[in-house]
Design brief:
Blueprint lengths: L11 E8 L6 E8 L3 H5 L3 E4 L14 E5 H8 L9 E4 L2 E9 L8
Parallel strand pairs: 4-6
Antiparallel strand pairs: 1-2, 3-6, 5-6
Length: 107
């Protein structure tokens, strides 16, 4: 999780990371975001939920929201992706949601 920047509002940073492990690993663009990132954009999840305020707290379990495009390419739009553990640069993240296409402009 990343610290909440209350004075700035929603916050995010983007980088390319390894998602998955072994022969299924792939390089993907990853956005690390605060809990209010998606709600600030005024969008709703396609599946599951977006980040909660508790997800920003130090020591909380790492959570992930997938883009609709990544969900389609990597998981074939399988709704059972929710609750699945996904490795991001070797660290475990629990998938809690899928963002609708165009949630951040495009997917």
């Amino acid at each position: 999780s990343i610290p909440q920047l209350a004075s700035v509002g929603a916050s995010s940073s983007q980088r390319t990371m390894t998602v998955g492990s072994g022969s299924e690993a792939m390089r993907a663009r990853v956005v690390m975001a605060t809990h209010d990132f998606f709600t600030t954009l005024g969008v709703t999840p396609r599946l599951g939920r977006f980040f909660l305020e508790e997800d920003d707290r130090v020591g909380s379990a790492a959570t992930a929201v997938l883009s609709e495009g990544f969900w389609d390419r990597a998981f074939g739009r399988d709704a059972r992706v929710l609750g699945r553990t996904l490795e991001v640069d070797g660290d475990p993240f629990t998938v809690v949601g899928v963002a609708q296409k165009d949630s951040r402009g495009q997917t």
